[in-house]
Write a structure and sequence with these properties.
With 479 residues, the protein is of the alpha+beta class. 56% of the residues lie in helices and 12% in strands.
Length: 479
């Protein structure tokens, strides 16, 4: 009983997820090379490299960006790439209207060596042209372009995908234990000389088995991104884990901190230096500095020896938070080495974002998107073929039942007619011999020489009339 239930679950969950998985998989293939494609579509956002010159520090970049956009307040500055610094802004209130000023953009890119503006954009807005192609694809991948609603939908899909990974694996196992491994090995192979259905079935089943560990990693990391409550609950149940929600700082809004960007940078450098000496890790380079007005806190992020990332992280490095007024330390988070659950999370983040194992892993993840699409399409094909087979089988069964019923009714009517004729003609051999549909010569072979010629002719006319009326009734009922 349990296997048919899981077959139905796999079928209908898979069909429900197909469209979403195809969109996420194909956009993910492109995002595996996000930075490289950004350089193609928006080359103006990258500065000319100066390998022999040190970039400006974070505080200087924040100050120069503030001078470029005086109608906004710098919220964060990040070394996004070696040749690109990204600055975000919080809008200032307009005293005349009491409303927040509209900046018309949410990302400003500056040269890391000079602080000069490279470009700005409203992230994901295709009306601005090629500069937003990759941000749009990223938004489609993460939220289906429907913001919080889309993120929730994909979170539900991610949970279903994670569960279906285990259901699909179970369905590849042989039903009985006899010759278990020998029979299971067929599920790992693709019979290339089989028909279309067999090849699609083998691709779906064998592909799912060979890719299972990676599929699970990407499914569960999708839950991490889009369905945090479920992810944190499950991770905490299995690992030693300090979830973000538990360590979130209290709301204490402060729009005018006493520490400016220069003082905040100095405070961050001092605190991370002290903590690295105590914790036994090394600070490699600064990555970003941000200020959260709702919490009244500065966030200072660095690349450290505890990081998983090999490429530019854009989030996921070691960071600390401190008070925007007095610089008091609030918390420190390291990607690895503190809690096993947080270490696993850092690896999930790095794998999903293709920030480890270099170019080979980027190529693999790009190909994986097409393989996930293949698994989805072959699953739909298998369902469609089985559905057609079931409909055809049901139609054939209906025809057979109908023919049997018609044949049964005809036989019953002939038997009744035969009994009536026997009653009328007293055991006439033509009736005792069986069937009204027989040839006249056979029906009357035993009548030769019995009775007068006139009597035989009369009996023959009566039986022929009987048979004609019965056949006409059958014909009307069939119509």
């Amino acid at each position: 009983m349990i296997r048919p239930f899981f077959v139905l679950l796999h079928r209908w969950v898979g069909l429900a997820m197909t469209g979403f998985l195809v969109v996420v998989a194909l956009t993910g293939s492109l995002l595996a090379f996000n930075t490289e494609l950004e350089r193609v579509f928006a080359p103006q956002l990258f500065a000319t490299p100066r390998p022999d010159v040190a970039p400006l520090d974070l505080a200087t970049l924040a100050e120069r960006a503030q001078a470029i956009v005086p109608q906004g307040r710098v919220a964060s500055v990040l070394y996004a790439e070696p040749d690109q610094a990204l600055v975000t802004f919080a809008p200032l209130m307009d005293p005349a209207t009491g409303q927040a000023r509209k900046l018309g953009f949410d990302q400003l890119f500056v040269d890391p060596w000079t602080g000069a503006e490279l470009g700005r954009r409203r992230r994901g807005d295709l009306s601005e042209g090629p500069i937003n192609v990759m941000p749009f694809i990223y938004k489609l991948h993460w939220t289906l372009t429907f913001d919080a609603v889309g993120s929730t939908i994909l979170g539900i899909v991610a949970v279903a995908w994670t569960i279906d990974c285990f259901v699909g694996f179970y369905l590849t196992l042989p039903v009985s234990l006899g010759g278990f491994f020998r029979r299971w090995m067929t599920a790992w192979r693709v019979k290339r000389r089989g028909g279309a259905y067999r090849v699609n079935l083998d691709l779906h089943r064998a592909g799912g088995l060979w890719l299972w560990p990676v599929l699970f990693i990407f499914a569960w990391s999708s839950v991490m991104f889009n369905m945090r409550p479920i992810y944190e609950w499950a991770t905490k149940a299995v690992f030693d884990y300090a979830p973000r929600s538990a360590s979130a700082p209290p709301q204490k809004r402060n729009d005018a901190p006493r520490l400016d960007w220069r003082s905040a940078q100095q405070t961050g450098e001092r605190l991370i230096g002290e903590l690295s000496a105590q914790g036994g890790f090394t600070v490699i380079q600064p990555l970003g500095l941000a200020y959260s007005a709702p919490h009244g806190l500065y966030i200072y992020e660095v690349r450290s020896s505890r990081d998983v990332f090999e490429r530019s992280p854009k989030g996921g490095g070691a960071y600390l938070m401190f008070d925007g007024d007095d610089g008091a330390l609030v918390s420190l988070r390291l990607p690895t080495g503190e809690h096993s659950g947080n270490t696993v999370e850092s690896w999930l983040y790095a794998l999903h974002m293709t920030r480890v194992f270099g170019r080979p892993f980027q190529i693999f993840v790009c190909a994986l998107g097409f393989l996930v699409t293949m698994l989805s399409v072959t699953g739909v094909y298998i369902w469609w073929k089985k559905r057609r087979a079931r409909k055809y089988s049901a139609a054939r069964s209906g025809e057979t039942v109908g023919q049997n019923e018609t044949s049964g009714h005809s036989s019953a009517r002939e038997a009744v007619a035969k009994r009536r004729a026997q009653t009328m003609f007293g055991g006439f051999p033509a009736l005792n011999g069986g069937h009204f549909g027989g040839k006249r010569s056979r029906a009357f072979s035993s009548e030769a020489g019995t009775g007068s010629h006139e009597e035989n002719a009369t009996k023959l006319r009566i039986i022929e009339s009987f048979r004609f009326n019965l056949n006409r009734k059958d014909s009307r009922e069939e119509k």
